[in-house]
Design brief:
single chain; 479 residues; mainly beta; 6-stranded antiparallel beta sheet; globular; binds fe (ii) ion
Length: 479
């Protein structure tokens, strides 16, 4: 008998586990679905099937559920399945939670000692004609792109040495290569980072390891046509703390950040580290190189805002002390010092996305999410607590934003960008909208270039979709 989940931020309200594997054939659509949208939108969601072993846990521990919206001939079909990881199968067989603290195997039930803890709950990515579900503490899980059945762990035919793979690999739209890395590459709290490249066909063609200045939560990185950028912000791990049953991550506001930059066609031995006061960021919108200058665009803050990490760090969330914004950091490689030039691009936010064609080069438009207090008070949704209530189109050259009109009862899950085949058309944004006084979620589609004009059409879901982490669009012609 499964007991109720704890009545905490991570498990209640819109964050209540869904636990629903399902198929919905031909979703009800309000409005006109643009006929050119043909393809598959995959999302991954942490969705714990059982209450936590220790009675409490973070949202980020939830077993990976993967969902598929398939757009075909003006219809949309929906499918959702758990990723059958070793972790999922062990808990399913036992009919209870068996894993303890986030990324701390020393707190697990003895029956799962030595078993894989990867939850495959963060990002779905399509590369080399294969679909993967990713979580940064482990290797990829391959999933069938039509049935969502789990195929198994993916290690590039036995060639990948790293034990981990980031949930934010970076595809090069022109070469078809996939750039990625794995931190804690050889074990818990290790400083070893593996930098890897897979070719268009999905063959691992590079794997080089380097030592980070310290073991940090390296959730994302950035790639330009000429450089690779590895940000190391001071959310840190310590093996002795983990072994004693403590938290994997703490934020250390007095420790420096390091930004490593290496030539893309060079070696990790050529890494140059720029030092900077403590900052935190989870996602980078884009980066590009112009001559000796490397530009990195992202939402930055002076604190890690995940409640479970703040608590572990002995810190409290104080909105009055939180500083941040959407910025461009410029690194001048012709100069010998650590100077980073910061240019403000827009108000604070996260979940950035650019059109895939713009990856890695100078670009004009990005889309990201914000919390706008003028719309309404925070509503409980997602792993940080308060959900985003605004999606904005940022023109990074003009430093102007345009925003989708929203109301005070709605939060948004991460948006994806769907390219248009029409010349001069900026494409579409699609995202799950959670309307907090209605029982079920909706999917909203907007024209990216006309975001301020509102929603083009809505897909009506016959269930509530737990807040996912990331998603990706795979056009029909890619299969
Ligand atoms: Fe992420």
């Amino acid at each position: 008998m499964t007991k109720p989940f704890p009545n905490t931020m991570d498990f209640s309200g819109y964050n209540a586990p869904s636990r629903i594997e399902c198929d919905v054939y031909d979703l009800v659509i309000d409005g006109e679905l643009p006929g050119e949208i043909e393809g598959s939108w995959y999302r991954t969601i942490p969705d714990p099937p059982f209450p936590p072993l220790l009675g409490h846990d973070t949202y980020l521990s939830g077993d990976g559920m993967i969902s598929l919206f398939r757009f075909e001939n003006g219809h949309v079909d929906f499918k959702m399945r758990y990723v059958q990881t070793e972790r999922y199968k062990a808990q399913h067989a036992a009919r209870r939670g068996l894993f303890g603290l986030y990324r701390n195997p020393y707190t697990d039930d003895p029956s799962v000692r030595g078993k894989g803890r990867g939850a495959a709950n963060t990002t779905p990515i399509w590369h080399g004609k294969r679909l993967f579900a990713l979580k940064e503490d482990s290797r990829a899980m391959e999933v069938h792109p039509d049935t969502l059945e789990t195929i198994g762990e993916w290690d590039y035919g036995g060639r990948l040495k790293s034990l981990t793979m980031t949930a934010h690999p970076r595809p090069d739209p022109e070469t078809g290569e996939l750039y990625f890395f794995g931190y804690e590459a050889d074990g818990l709290a290790s400083r070893q980072v593996a930098f890897c490249v897979a070719d268009r066909a999905g063959n691992l063609i590079r794997e080089e390891w380097f030592e980070a200045p310290y073991c940090a939560l390296m959730h994302d990185f950035a790639v330009t046509k000429e450089h690779i950028i590895f940000p190391v912000f001071p959310t840190t791990a310590d093996l002795d703390r983990i072994k004693s049953g403590g938290p994997h991550w703490v934020f250390e506001p007095d420790r420096e950040s390091y930004i490593g930059i290496m030539p893309r066609n060079g070696s990790v031995k050529e890494m140059r580290w720029f030092r900077h006061p403590a900052r935190m960021s989870f996602h980078f919108m884009n980066a590009h190189t112009a001559g000796d200058k490397v530009h990195l665009d992202f939402g930055v803050s002076n604190a890690n805002v995940f409640p479970f990490i703040l608590e572990a760090s002995g810190l409290t969330f104080d909105p009055a002390k939180l500083r941040g914004g959407y910025v461009r950091w410029t690194f001048d490689l012709s100069k010998p010092d650590d100077t980073i030039e910061e240019t403000m691009l827009g108000p604070p936010g996260d979940m950035p996305r650019v059109a895939e064609k713009d990856h890695m080069k100078d670009y004009e438009i990005g889309y990201y999410q914000r919390f706008d207090p003028t719309i309404g008070p925070p509503l409980l949704a997602g792993p940080v607590g308060g959900g985003f209530n605004a999606i904005s189109r940022l023109n990074v050259r003009e430093r102007t934003i345009r925003t989708l009109p929203m109301d005070r009862r709605t939060t948004v899950q991460e948006h994806i960008h769907i390219p248009s085949k029409r010349a001069g058309h900026e494409g579409y944004l699609a995202f799950v909208a959670d309307i907090h006084d209605e029982p079920y979620s909706q999917v909203w589609i907007v024209e990216a270039g006309n975001i301020e004009q509102g929603v083009v059409c809505k897909l009506r879901m016959p269930l509530r979709l737990r807040v996912g982490v990331h998603g990706n669009w795979v056009p029909a012609e890619a299969f």
